[in-house]
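Many introductory courses stop at the sequence. We go one step further.
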Amino acid sequence: MVTGNKGKVVEVSRGLGKPVTQVELHLDEVQSLDLSHIVKRKAEDAFEILQKPLLTDDAGLFIYEWQGFPGPFVKYIESCGGPQLMLDMTRSLTDRRAYFICAMAYHDGQTVHVAEGRLEGRLSIEIQPGGWGFDPIFIPEGYNQTMGYLRDNKVPFTSHRNRALDQLKKLFS
């Protein structure tokens, strides 16, 4: 799996039921509103370098009241101030509903297979410890705790990444 995020590798390894090797590459990431386009391009670029089957993923946080912003551009907010900056930016929202989408691509050497998974939820009003990225401020639908809390306390839930992985596995069954 081509990623700099060890947490993603752990999650995908659990989802596949076998260890996944992490490969860190510094690729130029295409800027697009389309997550599937982003991961497909990442997979193609990574395959050019590695010349072996691989998996890539990308995720976005979409806020309803902001018509889907920041979407795939959430990484910029993360790099500028992370969950605290997002909470500061969203403090005045009256509708805190949001969703994560994870797009995942598998390059088998000839074809890039792409799948997406979506997780509905809402933004919390404070940071709860645990997880990575925006896990500490995202509460999945049907829960009262953030994804970070759920992950760290091993509460079973199906993340956006697990949903994308499930869709990808269906392409091969």
